[in-house]
Amino acid sequence: MVTEEDLKSFSEVSKNIFEQIKCDMVGQEDVVYGCVIAMIAGGNVLLEGVPGVGKTRLVRTLGRVFDLPFSRIQFTPDLMPADVTGTNIITKDENGNSKFEFQPGPVFSNIVLADEINRATPKTQSALLEAMQEHKVTVMGETRALDEPFFVLATQNPIEQDGTYPLPEAQMDRFMFKLMVTYPDKAQLKDIVMMTQATMEETAEAACDAEQLLNMRATAKEILVSDKVLDYAMNLVVATQPESEAPAKVTKKYIRCGASPRAGQALITAAKVRALINGRYNVSVNDINALAGPVLRHRLKTNFEAITEHIDTDAIVAEIIKELGGSTKEQIVEDGNGNYKRKKQAPKSKKKKAKVVEVDDYDDEDVVEEDEDEDDDI
Asked: Model's pTM, two decimal places?
């Protein structure tokens, strides 16, 4: 059971985390916010952005703030799976006899940066599948557990496509969030230049250690989710599936393959963390809607019609949310306690319309008021 003391402690640690990250990062608030939520929730993040916008610096800063070991893997076409997971090598013991000894790869770290992950071959990309989902690595028939907490932050460049291999759906689905890293504006660019003129090194201090992070994760799991909020989240996921029992209209038109059950898990798990960061004991619909884009944008596969009309997945997710809660005669509204309920829209008001009639007993025209609907279609 989450107590008021747990909520206060979670909020204070979260606030300190964001303050320390700001010491080394300028702007990119949504990206930082999403990364912190994913780390507390135990998920992985895929960052997409052009080179030089601070993706690697963000990962190094997260390692300093959470006081966790950090390793970087530069993915290239000639990278082999053993370069990621590690391999057995022949060594000599004290008696001079040869033996096999396991040499851990860079994946044996708490925070792993998979830089330009789409430049490696599918064979090498698959080396991360078990690590990302089960937090284990199997080499030569022996399975080894990774240290907790474990977090993969992968980057990919959306511009250069030569020599790249698109990530398979099985790997994309293992990322909790896909976050878009954009260019900084003029003011942010000025701050970045002035910051790096002083020093290129990170200056953030540790705000949370591994034990605290795992305790925050355990606290978040105890946050309550009402049946109505849970049903709304599941309806959102089901609405992205064109062959489901209740697909959205925009889904049937533009989506070829919808979100998997992992999307529902990610929505609820991340929403619990977001609620705690905002100082609430329970998850609201606003939490689900705010996280729907990062959770669903990389899990939806559009058809040819969407590509030709330049309809991206963010626009489709926004339209699905609108269809679920905004375009029907019932609206989803939130009360002051973070709960939500369905509220019927007020009927269109009727207005008085003057009708002129002739009366035999009078020389002038009498005006008689008659009710008439404002909209003839109602």
From this structure: 0.76
Which residues, 6+ apart, have CB-to-CB distance to 95 below 8 Å? Answer: none
**Is 60 contained in some domain?**
yes
User: Which tokens is 125 given?
Assistant: 């990309």
> Does residue 339 lie in a domain region?
yes
C-beta separation of 136 from 145 below 8 A: yes
pLDDT digits (tens, 9 = 90+) for 51-93: 777 777 888 888 888 888 888 888 888 888 888 888 888 887 7
Alpha helices (H) along the chain: 4-21, 29-41, 55-65, 81-85, 122-125, 129-134, 169-172, 186-198, 210-221, 227-238, 249-254, 261-277, 285-296, 304-308, 313-325
Beta bridge partners of 185: none
Residue 229 lies in a domain: yes
Same domain, 192 and 256: no
Cα–Cα–Cα angle for 58, 205, 72, rounded to 5 degrees: 35
Residue with tokens 């009078």: 362
Residues 6+ apart with CB under 8 A from 103: 86, 87, 88, 89
Domain that holds residue 23: 1-81+110-221
The residue among 279, 176, 300 whose CA lies nearest residue 237 is: 300
Do residue 61 and residue 127 come from a single domain? yes
Sequence-ordered list of residues with C-beta below 8 angstroms from that of 336, at least 6 positions apart, any chain: none
235 in the same domain as 202: no
Domains held by the chain: number: 2
Alpha-carbon torsion 40, 45, 49, 53, what sign? positive
Per residue in 1-38, pLDDT (tens digit) is 677 777 888 888 888 888 888 887 778 788 888 988 99
What amino acid occupies position 149?
P
CA–CA dist 45, 170 (Å, integer): 14
15 in the same domain as 152: yes
Alpha-helix runs per DSSP H in 101-147 = 122-125, 129-134
* 203 sits in which H/E element: none
